[in-house]
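In the current project phase, the collection of sequences with tokenised folds has grown. One resulting record follows, to show the layout:
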Amino acid sequence: MKKDIQQDFDRINEKIDNVQKSYDDLAKNKDNGTINSTRAANIVIKNLEYDAREKDDIQITVHKVQALFRDGMTIPDVKIKSTSRKHGRENHNGIIIVELDDAAQKKQYLARNVN
């Protein structure tokens, strides 16, 4: 019986060590600024004119966003994962949510625009 209790204590201590290691890894990633959220890779674009063709073909929105990056921000090689337009009120264009591959890519594009 004493042997069984000792084995149980050993298993519990092992689990505590694993939890501590997991916590340390999470804290280290947080300190490094690593963002794992998919929302962190999103860019919101406001006041981009709505085209009625966007209702039937999502690619039109993608092409408009690519043209904005290429012509307006001089970033020719933007890789867009997806776009979606959130409709506003009657006289407003609404916003476009652009999802990029990852947050590092977003940071790189925005840093290019600032310089």
